[in-house]
Structures are given as structure tokens and as C-alpha cells.
Write a structure and sequence with these properties.
single chain, 752 residues, two-stranded antiparallel sheet, 27 helices, globular
């Protein structure tokens, strides 16, 4: 099967089949549904692998579905898309295996599985999208279907987290849509292949207005994609959503769904603003802030899953830093190539700074940034699948994610110790494991770029200085914060390891119960965790044999052939120079662990040891979700809009009163009832006569008129006056406008 569309459609078809099979709530049917989920994940994984094999054999891949949304859905294949399509299917397969034991007693597992399949199909559609409309179409589906993951428990906390998640997703989707409109208006296309060519033409033509609008479009789309990637400052949905969602869903949120946001940012960087260093500086700043803030929150958190959530945020910062470096290096590379070809500086600058060997070296560094970004996305996916599945095992047995509750759970559990240590050390960048490889590539690209900038600043060509967006001082600061953030990763992973496997629970009976647990994880869950943990050491031990081919396959077919012309040679990852960066991060991590975790989290301000253990020491008043986003969008904005609406409503009422007293004066009618109208008069008269007839037939005495005519007249006046007040209000006018707009949209959809 070489049809990409059927790879995307298969999960939706399986969802329909699943809904039919899952009718009823018997235990046997729930078991059958779990097996169907595993089967669906395995088939999707086989389909994704088949696309890679077809691509390697030279088959042309890509197809379209016309008529959807007027533009149609278009799919394409590239190495990067193929790798992440395969990894997406792989993640769904292993989490389905893990869910077999984890979710078997969940009363809402059927609903979870339905939305799981829908999210899988939408995610595959994102990675194989050939244009921005197709990507946006599936991105919105994914946002709404994954919302059900966060709200799955239906507790007050889960619904609160789901509300935040959905609010950010809707706002992000609207921002992407606005950027999509601007791109289409300025570039005339939404196809990724054509967008790059048109963007280069716009930038080379010197139209500053069009370039500014492209930056506006990129900024809008960054809000939407950055929110899904949990980049600062649109990360506020992350901690509670990760904590409240089931462990398999959290693993997918961190490992896969965050990558869809990075995927969108990459496409914007490559196709909307190619070789724009100022955009790279923006991404670099956001990446560094995300990296450092996530690391600090991870160190200071006293909740196991919240620590992993902020760890995901920090690692996304590393990836964004890599994307920013790509943009900066591409700008610098094109600047050097352009100067060499034009020969503009040969009289003022030593020619050795512009020869082909220098350009080849810059190209190599650019390749390191691209490979490092791609590999860190892969490495982050593997370690977070392991870590969040381990978190699921822990909460299933302990019932809490609080560090004081899970203390000592991992003692005398060698399986849990090995897999957790591999994943924690891998994400911490410890040598011989996968995270070290990708972080080394990213760090070396930053260091090399800083050296080249120092060289540029030392020569006399002012136009070279103005051609690059970053400065050497800024890049040196980025390198320092990069290593410091690596140290924060080591610190919070050390905290979790010590809590689980070194320390004992403060309650001796609880500790004895933990150590007595033998069957704490099911066999399918063990298989899922082991499958994800095995590649971690292989990538680290054999980086040039495992990591490099994967990265280059994605690199060569990700639309970067216009920048990469030189084959990258093997890198000496374990040279003293490269190891020094990891050693600095490890040293920083040890210091942060002892100062912050052991000295501050376990001691009070008066330096007295707390009896109840770990405490979250991050200031609560810095909670951006509660005191910024919710305060602004849920309180301040509705309050201001309410005031504006009241003012506008009063203005409309004043205009109506003024018109009635001037242009539309009331006239006296030739005949008018004393009160009410003819309907109330006639009904009241009839009711009074019926009552009189009743007294006559029943021969009752003491008849007294009830004056029904007056009562109905008063009631009618009250009702009609209320209707008139509503009709005169701005709210009613806006409501009728919305109704008319909705009917118009329905008519247009039916006609087209």
C-alpha cells in the first residue's frame, strides 16, 4: 500500500469498527476492545514502515482528496515526515500495550479508546500534510479529540485542566487560521513546496511590507503551534493537563502531540521565513526561556508527574533552540555564499575567510544543528514514553504522584530501577546514552556559531556584521544557559531517582507494603516499556551507526537540499572537547540538587528539617495560568466587554427614545380600549361569563366578579413590554445578527 491517505484514514475506519464492537460493558468486550487497539496500532505501524520502504525503493508517494473545505486535503512524503509518522504509530502501539493492563478496570476505557483512535488519525494527517490547510484541518481535529484525554476522569480538577487545555487550543487554532489567511494573501499558496519559492521571491524583491506581513503570519502561527509544543509563555495548560490525564495519554501528549507543534514551527521557519536570522533570534530567545523555566519548575516541584511535565517543557526548549540555530546558521551560510559569489569583499577582507572550505565548515555546523534538532525530538519521544509509563505504574500502585507518597516505592524493584535509570540518564545527557548525542550536536552548533560571530566582529567588513542577526555576546549567553539547563535536567531526574529508589518512606508500614509488591506491573506493560527503553543505550553507544543515518534520512528529504550540499562526516562524540560540555552540566546538576532539593525543599526557611518531607518551593503567586491567563481572559476581559456592551446598549436605548420623541412620535388612536387589547378583552369577557354560568348551573350564591379582563390586560402589558425591551437591546440585535450569519454560512455550504 503506497497511498498515504489510507494510512491517515485507517484509524478513523478502525474507530467506526471499534464503536460497533464495543457495544455493551461486559468484561470480555473490554478485553476484546483492548486487543483491537493493539491490533490497530500494529497495523498502523506496519503501514508507516511500508511507506519508508517504498520511499527507499524510489516509489513516488503522495495523494489528494478533493472537495474538503473547498481546498481539498493534500498529502506528501519526506524523510522527516516518514520518520515521525513511523514514531507516531510506534508510540500508539506501545501505549496500547501498556493500556492493556493499566486501563482494564477503567469504567470509561471505551470512550478513551475511541478518542485515542481519532487522535491517532489526526496526528498522522498532520505529519503527512502537504499544505497548511491540510495541516490546520487535522491539527484542529487533534486538539478537540485529545481534549477528551484530559477530561477523562471527569473530576473537578480534570475538568478544570481540560477547560484550560481547550481554551488554549481554541485560541491557538484561531491564531493559526489568521496566519494561514495572511500567508495565502501574500504568497498566493498554502503548499509547502511552493511557499518556500514564493517566500524567497518576496524577500529578494525588497518588498518590506510583504516581509513584515510574513513575520506577522509567522508570529500568529507560532502562538498556535507553540501552545501545542508547550513553549513559554503559552505553556500554562501543561502541568495540570499532564497530571490529570491517564498515564498512556500523558505519554502521547509529551512524546507525540508536542512534536506536532514543533513540526509546525519547523515548517514556518523553513517555508514562510527561510533564512531569516531575526526569526531565528526570536526562536532562540523563546527556546532558552522555555528551557530554563521548565528546568527550574521541574527542580522545585514536589509532584512526580508535574516534574515530568515541566521536564517535557524544558526539553521542548532544547528543540526550539535547535530550530533557532538552524535559522541563524542558514542566514549566515547564505550571507557567506552570496559574498563569495559576488566578490564584494575580496578587497577589504582576507580571502581565506570566504573560501569554499570555510563555507563547507559552516554547512557542516548547520547540519549539526538540523541533526541535533531531529535527534533530540526522537530521543525525547523515547525517554518520555518510558518515564510516563513508569509514572503510570507508580500511580496504579500508590494512588498518588506526590513525592512524599511515592518515596521508597522503587526499592527492591530491579526492572523499574533499570528502565527508569536509562530514561532519566538519557534525558539528562549522560554520555553513552541517547540524549548525550543530540545535546552534543546542539551544543557544538551553538559554540561553533559563536566562534564564527567573533571572527566576523573582528574583521573590518561592516556590511557582514549587519547581515547577521545575532551577536557573539548573545550566543555565549545562550551556550551558558544551554549547559545550565542541562544541569537542571540532571538535578530533577536525580531528585526523582533518589525519591523512588534510595530513600525510604516515612511510614515504615507503607515501606514494607511497597517492598512486598512483586506483581506491580503486567507483562504487556513490561514489554511496552522495554521496547521503548532498548534504543536509548544503542543510540548513545553507536551514534554514527544508529543516530546519524536516521537524522540524515530525515534531513535529505525534508526540503533542505537547497541548503545542504556537503555530506557530513562522522563526529567524534566522545572527544574531550565534547565530553566537557556534559561534564559541566553534570557538575551544575549535582550542585543544584544539593542546594535546592536537599537544602531547600527538605528544610524550612529557618533551616529546620520538615517532618513531612518534600515541599513545592516555587512561589504560588507566579502561577501564570491562575493569575495571568485566567485572570485576564476569564475575569478582566469579560468585565471590560460587559462594560462596553452596557454602554453601547444604553446608547442604542437613548437613540430609540430620541427617535420616538422626534421623528416617530406616538399618535392618539381613534379608538382605544381602556386597558389591554382586543385579545385580552375578549378572553377576559369569556372567562367571566363562563364563571357566571358555572354559578348559575351549580345554583351557588354570592357571585363576585373576578375582573379577569383587568388581570389579563396587566399580564399582557407586562409580557409585551419585556419583549419590547429585549428587541430594543444591543444583545438582541447581536443575537439576530449571529442567527443571520449562521443561516448564511449554512446556505453557502449547501450551495457550494
Amino acid at each position: 500500500m503506497r497511498d498515504i491517505f489510507w494510512t491517515v484514514l485507517f484509524p478513523f475506519v478502525m474507530c467506526a469498527i471499534f464503536c460497533v464492537v464495543s457495544r455493551g460493558k461486559t468484561k470480555d468486550k473490554r478485553k476484546a476492545c483492548a486487543l483491537i487497539m493493539i491490533f490497530a496500532g500494529a497495523v498502523e505501524l506496519a503501514a508507516a514502515l511500508n511507506l519508508i520502504i517504498c520511499d527507499l525503493n524510489g516509489f513516488s508517494l503522495g495523494n489528494s482528496v478533493s472537495g474538503v473545505g473547498g481546498l481539498g486535503l493534500h498529502f506528501m512524503y519526506s524523510g522527516f515526515r516518514g520518520i515521525f509518522g513511523m514514531l507516531t504509530a510506534f508510540a500508539w502501539f506501545v501505549t496500547a500495550l501498556f493500556s492493556y493492563g493499566y486501563m482494564k478496570n477503567d469504567p470509561n476505557v471505551i470512550r478513551y479508546d475511541v478518542f485515542n483512535l481519532l487522535t491517532l488519525g489526526a496526528t498522522m494527517g498532520i505529519f503527512y500534510a502537504a499544505d497548511l490547510f491540510t495541516l490546520f484541518f487535522f491539527f484542529e481535529i487533534m486538539s478537540f479529540t485529545s481534549f477528551a484525554w484530559v477530561a477523562h476522569k471527569q473530576t473537578r480538577e480534570a475538568l478544570y485542566a481540560a477547560g484550560t487545555y481547550l481554551g488554549i487550543a481554541i485560541a491557538g487554532g484561531m491564531a493559526i487560521l489568521m496566519g494561514l489567511f495572511i500567508v495565502y494573501g501574500r504568497l498566493g499558496t498554502l503548499s509547502f513546496d511552493a511557499m518556500y519559492e514564493n517566500a524567497v521571491m518576496v524577500m529578494s524583491s525588497g518588498s518590506k511590507a510583504d516581509v513584515r506581513w510574513l513575520f506577522v503570519a509567522a508570529g500568529c502561527m507560532f502562538v498556535g503551534f507553540g501552545a501545542k509544543a508547550s513553549a513559554f509563555p503559552v505553556h500554562v495548560w501543561l502541568p495540570q493537563s499532564y497530571t490529570e490525564a491517564p498515564a498512556p495519554a500523558t505519554a502521547l501528549l509529551s512524546a507525540i502531540l508536542s512534536k506536532t507543534g514543533i513540526f509546525g514551527i519547523l515548517l514556518v521557519t523553513l517555508d514562510v521565513l527561510p533564512m531569516q536570522g531575526s526569526w531565528g533570534v526570536f526562536l532562540l530567545i523563546v527556546g532558552i526561556v522555555t528551557m530554563v523555566f521548565g528546568g527550574i519548575r521541574g527542580v522545585m516541584s514536589s509532584n512526580f508527574k508535574t516534574t515530568l511535565a515541566y521536564s517535557s517543557m524544558s526539553q521542548i526548549g532544547f528543540i526550539l533552540t535547535g530550530v533557532g540555530m538552524q535559522s541563524l546558521l542558514a542566514e549566515y551560510l547564505m550571507c557567506m555564499i552570496g559574498m563569495e559569489q559576488a566578490g564584494e569583499l575580496l578587497g577589504t577582507v582576507d580571502a581565506r575567510y570566504l573560501d569554499s572550505e570555510v563555507i563547507a565548515e559552516i554547512t557542516k555546523v548547520f547540519g549539526m544543528a538540523v541533526n541535533g534538532t531531529c535527534l533530540h525530538m526522537l530521543n525525547h519521544l523515547l525517554v518520555k514514553l518510558v518515564l510516563f509509563m513508569v509514572a503510570g505504574v507508580i500511580v496504579k500502585q500508590v494512588g498518588s504522584y506526590e513525592l512524599n507518597q511515592v518515596r521508597g516505592f522503587g526499592r527492591k524493584k530491579p526492572f523499574l530501577l533499570v528502565v527508569f535509570l536509562l530514561a532519566a540518564a538519557g534525558v539528562g545527557g549522560i554520555p553513552l546514552l541517547n540524549g548525550y548525542v543530540s545535546k552534543t550536536l546542539l551544543h557544538e552548533s551553538i559554540a561553533a556559531y559563536g566562534q564564527w560571530l567573533e571572527l566576523v566582529e573582528s574583521i573590518s567588513a561592516q556590511n557582514v556584521k549587519s547581515a547577521v542577526s545575532a551577536t557573539a555576546a548573545m550566543i555565549n549567553l545562550v551556550e551558558t544557559l544551554f549547559l545550565f539547563s542541562g544541569g537542571l535536567t540532571v538535578a530533577y531526574m536525580t531528585k526523582l531517582f533518589v525519591v523512588l529508589f534510595v530513600e525510604k518512606n516515612s511510614d515504615k508500614k507503607v515501606q514494607e507494603t511497597y517492598q512486598a509488591k512483586k506483581d506491580y506491573v503486567s507483562v504487556p506493560s513490561k514489554i511496552a516499556i522495554v521496547i521503548c527503553a532498548l534504543p536509548i543505550p544503542f543510540i548513545g553507544i553507536l551514534p554514527n551507526h544508529v543516530a546519524k543515518p536516521i537524522a540524515e534520512y530525515g534531513l535529505m528529504r525534508f526540503g533542505l537540499s537547497h541548503l545542504i550540499e556537503h555530506q557530513q562526516e562522522n563526529i567524534h562524540y566522545y572527544s574531550l572537547e565534547n565530553l566537557s560540555g556534559a561534564l559541566i552540566s553534570i557538575t551544575v546538576g549535582v550542585m543544584v540538587y544539593f542546594v535546592v532539593v536537599r537544602f531547600m525543599m527538605l528544610r524550612s526557611i529557618s533551616f529546620q528539617r520538615r517532618a513531612d518531607g518534600y515541599h513545592d518551593i516555587f512561589p504560588r503567586w507566579l502561577n501564570m495560568e491562575k493569575y495571568v491567563y485566567r485572570a485576564v481572559f476569564y475575569t478582566a476581559v469579560p468585565f471590560l466587554l460587559g462594560i462596553i456592551s452596557r454602554i453601547l446598549d444604553s446608547v442604542v436605548d437613548l437613540i430609540v427614545i430620541l427617535l420616538r420623541r422626534t421623528v416617530y412620535r406616538d399618535r392618539a388612536l381613534p379608538y382605544e380600549l381602556p386597558e389591554g387589547n382586543r385579545v385580552t378583552h375578549r378572553i377576559g369577557y369569556i372567562m367571566e361569563r363562563v364563571r357566571l354560568l358555572y354559578y348559575a348551573v351549580m345554583r351557588k350564591e354570592g357571585y363576585q366578579p373576578k375582573n379577569y379582563e383587568h388581570k389579563l390586560a396587566m399580564k399582557g402589558t407586562d409580557i409585551f413590554e419585556n419583549f419590547r425591551i429585549i428587541e430594543r437591546s444591543l444583545s438582541f440585535g447581536l443575537f439576530m445578527f449571529c442567527v443571520g450569519l449562521g443561516l448564511t454560512m449554512i446556505y453557502l455550504l449547501m450551495v457550494n
